[in-house]
Fold:
Amino acid sequence: MAGKIFMSYSRRELGFVDDLVSKLEEKGYDVWLDYRVLIPGSPWKEQIDKGLNESDTVLLVVSKASLASQYVELEWRHFLDMKKRMILLIFEAVDIPKELEKFEWVDFRGSYKAGLTELFSQLEKPIQEEHLAPESGFKMPWQIWGTIVLSVIVALISLGTFWTIFIPFVLIPLPYQIFKRSFDFMRVQAALAALPIALAMGEFVYVENTELIDSLTYGFGLGFLAWVLLAVLRSAPLQRWGKPESTVPKFANPYNPNIMNPEPVPFFIDYAPQDSKIADEMSTMLKKYGHPQADSIQSAKAVMALISRFKNNTEADPVKQVVFPVMIQMNNDLAPKLSKVQWIDFRPGVKGLNRLSQLLPNPTALLKALGMRPVSSLSVYPPMITALIYFIILIAVINVGAVIDYLFFTGVTGILDEESVPLLLGVMAGSVFLFAVLSFFMVRSLISRTGLFSNIKTFIVGFIIQGVLVFGIRAFDNFIYDILLDEAGVDLGYTFTYLGTWVYVIGLAVLAIVYFRNRLDIKRWFPSTQK
Structure:
């Protein structure tokens, strides 16, 4: 057996490493992987040094990013000095430092299964390599080639949704982005999910005498490939292939403790006034499990520093106290003294406060209960906030597409001399412009938690105005339809605004379901009003 294994890698190969470690642990190997074993509230450098010293074998993931990383170099040079065993895992063929050329290696560029088999064999019994590790040549798993082909087909299909602008804009460059391992998963997911709906709407509007059921059959029949592609992008081979921004956020190692009476730990929550709702909820849960609230930050044994757009530092001293940076919103300007301390990720939603309370005296187990794969480069929001963002963008795309359709594809521009048509089109275009601007600022406020619509009351007002505009734009559409039919004998048939009202109503119903399951997201996400 290889003894304790240390994983040395670049975060750009996070998906590959996460899956590989799971496979190693299934075989009974003891693996040291930073984000699975680091103790929250403690400086990570000392923990990494301890992991290096206690490990017998290092698995070095070879890639451009890892060999360019000074931290990875420090790790493998440490093993060289200690004369411990090292196995190179070839993720990309790149120039390897002379000091590493003599070591064992396993090629993971092609078949992942074959690479695993060879790695398990080498861990059980070291071998003498007959050839040096490959430093050139390109290989890619067949699943990736297949996904690229499928994404090309979906990109071509997306041209049928030209009126949305957004969907083809996201999906046309996707094949190349998959090849380069770098695409925004959240944005691609939104485009792929919306593609069948947009195809059905386009078929219903542009093809004369088409029944709604036929349009839905066409849209979801052809657009089903988009959902297949989405499932493929979420599959293990693609999650291993993509960079962190192209992967799905998930728990690293979920664990549910059952400790009803943990050892009391005096705590203090350091937070910005805007985050007081989360702080109060956290405090209530900690007290429920018997932890007393300290009178001051200096007298606390455990300090929870809530990190958000409104706060990036704490008065607590991580050297003298146990400080838990709790990330509830991304802040790229984290204070230096906190940037070197392992943090708890609550950006996908504040969940597991009971587990935090149970394990507060035993932070070594915290990551097993609350650990997330590192996703610092990925935009992550709570489920209800994500649903609101997607809904607003979808309705905005439909309404903007309706005006584009009128001005460029229905032939209305040729009969603008008809009475009232130019005025109504102008009013409709103005309403859509207002809707687009309103949607932009609402989404921006949702993402940043700042601005006019970061207040729950003003957001609700904005949401109501959006509904009024949706049905108002539909009313203008009806006026134009009636004028053209009565005065010019032009029958436009169904338009996007007609379908847009139905999408709006159905979307509200879906939002209601999401809200029922995630209603606390709203309470926690919108900042508290400062008095």
Summary: The radius of gyration is 28 Å. The beta strands are 4-8, 30-32, 57-62, 85-90, 104-107, 267-270, 302-307, 322-327, 344-345. The CA atoms of residues 167 and 191 lie 5 Å apart. The first helix runs from residue 14 to 26.
